[in-house]
Specification:
- It is a single chain.
- By secondary structure, the protein is mainly beta.
- It has two helices and ten strands; from the N terminus they run E-H-E-E-E-E-E-H-E-E-E-E.
- The protein has one domain (2-138).
Length: 147
């Protein structure tokens, strides 16, 4: 889920992760939206694990993944985690073993220097400006993730 941060702070706790971004691509093309919450739903998930990893733990991104599943990752722009992942990420052992999708969270450029990009842990309500938020999901044995 993504939005400017306002709606994410108000959501009830649950099994979700989110990040700030007002720049989005929709079926109508690119847009800037400070009002709406954008949600990506995944069907057929049998289990999930949510975790927050600090920059020094990023080389072990695949450690807690499911054997048959995929992982979603959100990293705040301009953070140490963002720089570390951009520079060293391709060298992380097993990085591409599970299908993995993600996004670098952000904020409106008019707010640069006033607002920082964030990631949210829906399970406990925590908000982070540093580190990566991950959701590992498992799929039924008869399904395979492909991105």
């Amino acid at each position: 889920m993504t939005d400017s941060g306002e709606a994410l702070r108000k959501l009830p706790k649950g099994r979700w992760i989110g990040g700030t971004s007002v720049y989005l691509v929709t079926e109508k093309g690119g847009c800037v939206d400070r009002e709406n919450l954008f949600v990506t739903e995944r069907e057929g998930i049998t289990d999930s694990r949510i975790e927050h990893r600090l920059p020094e733990a990023l080389p072990e991104l695949g450690k807690d993944r499911f054997d048959n599943g995929m992982s979603m990752i959100l990293i705040p722009a301009f953070s140490k985690a963002h720089a570390q992942f951009a520079i060293d990420g391709a060298c992380h052992t097993g990085l591409f073993d599970p299908p993995r999708m993600g996004l670098v969270t952000g904020m409106q450029l008019d707010d640069l220097g006033k607002v920082t990009p964030k990631v949210f842990d829906g399970c406990n309500g925590s908000v982070h400006e540093e580190g990566a938020m991950l959701m590992h999901v498992s799929l039924p044995a008869d399904r395979t993730a492909a991105l």
